[in-house]
Amino acid sequence: MAEKTYRVGIIGCGGMGRSHTGNWRGTGRAEVVTASDISEESAKKFAEDQSLSSYYTDFEEMCEKEDLDIVSITTWQSVRAEPTIAAAENGVAGIITEKPMAASVGDAQDMMDACEKNGTKLVVGHQRRFSGQNCEARRLIQEGAIGQPQAMLRRDGHGLLNRGTHEIDEMRYILGDPEPQWLIAQVSRKTDRWERRVRTEDLCMAEICFEGGIRGIYESDLPGPGLRGDAVYGDDGQLRRGDDGTIELLNSKAAGWQTIKPRQNEPNQFTEMLAWMEGEVDEHRNAGRHGFTTIEILMAFYESLRIQDVVTFPMETRPNPLDLLVEGGKLPVHVEGRYDIRAPFPEENK
After folding, report:
1. Domain of 13, in residue numbers
2. pLDDT digits (tens, 9 = 90+) for 2-22
3. pLDDT tens, 329-349?
4. What's this model's pTM, rounded to 2 decimal places?
5. 299, part of any domain
6. For 42-106, what is the HEC assignment?
7. DSSP state of 202
């Protein structure tokens, strides 16, 4: 019996749309047949460049007409909910969205609800879960190589919904995906800073308490000196990233630091999506529920500032709390002039 070839549509005809197209074709099991973008010029050029037989400016029309098995949603984060819901309601079996899943807990919840209601498998593209180094770190921790995990440190910059979404998701993955219990954070926004047309902070940090009492410490855009942002500490040792994709491990079982190479090669999120759809794996490691938890944690940074207190999970506030703070006049801009760190506003190009 011949293997099924999956019909794929792309929503969002930018660089990530091209990346997803190449990755789907690389599986040898998927054919990208159509694409959609709000810009007809972008959609048309994309279809020509990728030799597609059709293109659309309305994603709902595309999902209704094209009998798609899978949709990749590579738009900006603030406009992911509507195409996800439309694809699910039109019977698409699998959806991969780029990260972060959305720009608010409310949008992310609506996406989850639509996919659950329609039996659609939803994946959020945090590709670091497929890094051999991260997978080996997770295995070592699960095997007890550092005893009971106690704390993990991450440091980065350039916005929570830009780089922070990777760091927080990676933190959970390496620790074995513990559920967050509470979070307390500090956030500063004195400039009119945006990231792909979503407000973002100037800098922030938080302490996250995961189940079992594990603490996650994350800081973004804070002044130096910097900490080593790749360490996991347990009650019997620690591990960190080594050179050439290795893990460096220190525990009571051996003298000094050990260098460990990953024991296996990992697939990518596209081949694992096909395996999940065909029942070959129980769940995709980037299944929507993990992307949803990541969004809850990111929004809790802002919510902690808004309520000036500890945030407990699950998150109850549906809108983006940073928007509530700014629009409510509680977080005034001290340096005038909006700017977007990823997609410059028109006035920035003058």
Report:
1. 6-127+269-285
2. 689 999 999 999 999 999 999
3. 999 999 999 999 999 999 998
4. 0.97
5. yes
6. HHHHHHHHCCCCEEECCHHHHHHHCCCCEEEECCCHHHCHHHHHHHHHCCCCEEEECCCCCCCHH
7. S
